[in-house]
Amino acid sequence: MTRRHPRPPSILDWPRAMAYYLYIALATLVLGLWGLPQALRGTEAANRVASLWLDQMLGAARVILGVRIEYRGTPPAGDCIVASKHQSFLDILALARACPRRAFVMKREVLRVPIMGWFARKVGCIPIDRSRGKEAMKRIIAEVEAARARPEGLGQLIIYPEGTRTRPGHRLPYKHGAGTIQRATGLTIQPVAVNCGMFWPKRGIPIRGGTAVVEFLEPIPVGHRSTQVMELLEERIETASARLFAEAGGRAEGA
């Protein structure tokens, strides 16, 4: 039976989380060192190692934490922009596993993390310095175009329009990045709604078992002005995420 609501709080929540993070630290070290020589062969090889790592992360979440992922809709396979609601580390893992050639736009500090940061750059993730404003966006667009010119292409460029994690049932103003990149590159935008934060909170503890949902929504093709694109993107993601929030037992504040 699929548990749509988070499991009730338990005294075992913290020990389970600690066991999970310990296992993942060891798995990351072992797989990372084992995969380094293979990743030197190129992006495709690095992505295969990353997929093995993601399988370990999500498999351990099922076994140790009782957290599962249900995918709805059709994940993209070609070059596109994936614009998703962001609530926790769980939706990062779930999105990355669903996209065969994933590449995140991420804070440049992440690339300094041992092993993980090196692989992130190797699979095509693009660092961003938020303090650089328009210059940072120009660099992202330049890197996207350079990736599209390579034989393997760009893949799925994953962006979080709100710029940070939000608590379930909450929303922040959307940044214009996805619309700007689409206008410059002609890439389709794939919106994604989630309710992962209901099970795996923003701070990562305590984690509650159950089935989180990641839903791929109707793509947004080229043809609209950037402002229209962002309005449409926000409406689709927030409407669907609110529905998933309610499905998992969430209630709007004041309700």
From TrEMBL:
InterPro entries: Plipid/glycerol_acylTrfase (IPR002123). Keywords: Acyltransferase, Membrane, Transferase, Transmembrane, Transmembrane helix. SMART domains: PlsC. GO terms for molecular function: acyltransferase activity. The keyword Transferase applies. The keyword Membrane applies. Pathway: Lipid metabolism. Residues 80-197 form the Phospholipid/glycerol acyltransferase domain. SUPFAM superfamilies: Glycerol-3-phosphate (1)-acyltransferase. The chain crosses the membrane at residues 20-37. PANTHER family: 1-ACYL-SN-GLYCEROL-3-PHOSPHATE ACYLTRANSFERASE. This is Lysophospholipid acyltransferase family protein.
